[in-house]
Design brief:
The protein is built from twelve helices and 21 strands. The chain is of the alpha/beta class and 407 residues long. Strands 19-20-1-21 form a four-stranded mixed β-sheet. A four-stranded mixed β-sheet has the order 3-4-6-5, with helices on one face. Strands 7-8-10-9 form a four-stranded mixed β-sheet. Strand 7, helix 5 and strand 8 form a beta-alpha-beta unit. Helix 4 packs parallel to helix 5.
Amino acid sequence: MDIAIHFEPTGTGGDIQLPASKSISNRVLIISALSDSLMPIYNLSDCDDTAVMLNVLNSNDSSFDIGHAGTAMRFLTAYLSRIAGKWEITGSARMKGRPVAVLVDALNRLGAQIEYKEKEGFPPLIIRGSYLEGGELEIPASVSSQYISALMMIAPYMAKGLKLILKGQVVSRTYIHMTAALMREFGAEVQVGENMVEVCPRPYTPVPFSVEADWSAASYFYEWLAVKGEGELRLPGLLPNSLQGDARQVEVWKKWGVETFFEAGAVRLKACRPMASAVEFDFTGMPDLVQSFVVASCLKEIPFVFSGVQTLRIKETDRIAALIEEMARLGYSLRAEGDSRLIWDGKRCATRNPEIATYHDHRMAMAFAPAAWKFPGLVIRDRDVVTKSFPGYWEQFGKLGLVSQTQ
């Protein structure tokens, strides 16, 4: 189902209820399952990706279809490789086109038994849960930090533990540090260096855990204030010393005209004058925010050169190609330089029918919706795709005056 949207100036704003962090929820579920914990996990995310993880971890089946959930594919591949049994894991057509060879090769070298059922290097996978020897291993770190996190989380149950030598540029390093911090919460011994991760063979200790609100989801409300250019919002549940790398956006949004003030148990956002007329920024540490910053930049007429975007090619869709195509519908000519740079030099093109395709990608829908402030009647295809990470997205934007009509 599609949705046509515009914003009325009568929106009251107020408190915005963000979802719990999907990244933290999915990691804690794996760690808790490995520890055979009966301890509660509070404020667990209610998004589709976390529901997929829960379904698999609580299932009595041996064959799983995880749909579009890329995090689940990577984390569960590692998890099932040490759980006794024969398992099969597959996903959507897009998932079958997302490479997993780096992870599968690493696991097999550590003692796992994983085969490709169809195309070499891609899901679906057949996994025979087995004893994992562990040891020292080199792994490319420039493709996805989720491969590294997946290996880290099961490493306490490898006979020799695990020492990973990270080769090449480390992308999304903040997520590796998040994984290490969560593992330590459950008693693991983890060391993270510049190009090395080491985990001792020491099982987890079950503990209760509470998941914090999602800093990635906060980006769409920063974006809306930047595009609108005035107003304030309050976002409860965000922590100043967050485990989430996307909390770094606080300083970055000042360039686009949004300030952040930390209050007791919340942050308050306030629109201000933009600090930049053009921006160069490296998104290696927070690639999930690129779409929000691209839309905000173009609508505020702030040319940009965004580097560190190479992981966007293998997300739910090729986000670089998708951004170029969909921003062109709104009259903005973006271009890519290789896989690592996305550029808008201020060049405009003819506006096409403003109907935004989302490509089964929740972040395309959520990042483009604030553009309706400048493009009333904007159509977002597949409105329900947001449930992958933020089921209450449209409801929360309704507080800001969003008016929608399904099509």
